[in-house]
Every structure is written in C-alpha cells, then in structure tokens.
Design goal:
Length: 196
C-alpha cells in the first residue's frame, strides 16, 4: 500500500456517497486515507479533513497501523466522525479495531465489500484473498460486528463500486459527554497549532 498505483480511481464514487450519508460530519478522520485521499475531494465547504494511514502521503497524514491497533489518536481526539472506507477487508481482527474506534470517536462511517449471504464458496474466499482481503462478512455479519463492538446502526445503503459495497453510519454507545467536552478543547488547541 505504499505505492499510489494500488489505489482505484473508482473509489471517488464511494467517497461522494459516504459524504452524502454523513451530513452531520464536520471534523473528519479518514482512517486509511490512501495515496489519492479521494474523500478529501468530496468534502463540503467547512469540513475539516484529517488523513491517517500507514504511509505518510502528505505532511498532515497521521501515521497508524490498524492491524497492530496503533490508531491515529491525535486525529481521533478531535474528529466527530471517522470514515473507514475499504479498510475492514484488510483487518485481521476487525472486532478489536471497531471496539477501539467506538471508545474514541462518536460517529463512524464504514464501507465494506460484503460476501453474498447465500452461496459462499471456497472460490469466493480465494478471490478475496487474491486481492488482499482477509475476511468474508455478509451484510448481516458486518452489522452484528458493529453492534457487538459498541455501535448502534443509524443508516445503511448499498452502492456499486467494483462489487457490491455496503455503507453504514453508526454512533458509538461508549462515547461520553466528558470525551465530547475534551474534543472541543482539543480542536481549539489544534487550531492554535498546539496539538500537531
């Protein structure tokens, strides 16, 4: 994932659909932003973009390694919504990652290329492994994973990006009023250049 050539231009469609599903989002952490940072181009006026990835694509990209649960805590502490687009497919322990996110951020917008609920086959798993995907959730399994790891589902919709993709918005059941108050303080510090 250190080469920009690995990023699909079609992901812009997913980014636009994701932004439209999260009208409340004002400070956005793009977890696994990728070289193209396609979500940034889809933002509405006034939204603040906080990229995070395992490669520092730009000077403001906060480094993280999600399979090791090294999260971008600076960005998570000031964002109201974390976008996790096309990332969960590559995570070996998605429950652990989602639990950590639900403890740190109020809103989540997630996309996932789900497997069909019927007709799973070893060929399908092999196809998914050939593109680097390490898990095979159906839509129901994905929603259950979110519910079991601290989220309540707010909305979901299917879009077509290469395969059938589900977009889900969810709210953390663990995010506290104290965290909300601290987030505003952290934003002020960020704007003053104190928390970079």
């Amino acid at each position: 994932w250190s080469s920009p050539d690995r990023y699909d231009q079609a992901w812009q469609v997913r980014s636009v659909a994701a932004i439209e599903m999260a009208p409340h989002a004002s400070w956005i952490c793009d977890l696994g932003c990728g070289a193209l940072q396609s979500l940034k181009a889809a933002l509405r006026s006034g939204q603040v973009y906080l990229p995070a990835d395992l490669t520092q694509w730009t000077a403001d990209t906060e480094l993280c390694e999600l399979n090791e649960l090294r999260l971008p805590y600076r960005s998570l502490s000031i964002c109201d919504t974390v976008f996790v687009l096309g990332v969960i497919e590559y995570i070996f322990k998605p429950a652990c990652l989602l639990e950590a996110i639900s403890s740190n951020v109020e809103f989540l917008l997630l996309s996932y290329n789900q497997t069909p609920s019927e007709g799973r086959s070893s060929n399908l798993s092999e196809e998914r492994r050939s593109v680097g995907w390490v898990n095979d959730f159906t839509e129901l399994e994905l929603l259950t994973l979110l519910l079991n790891n601290g989220f309540e589902i707010q909305n979901k919709q299917k879009i077509l990006v290469n395969d059938s993709t589900t977009l889900v918005t969810a709210r953390s059941k663990r995010f506290t009023n104290q965290q909300r108050a601290r987030r505003y303080f952290n934003r002020a510090a960020y704007r003053l250049g104190l928390k970079r």
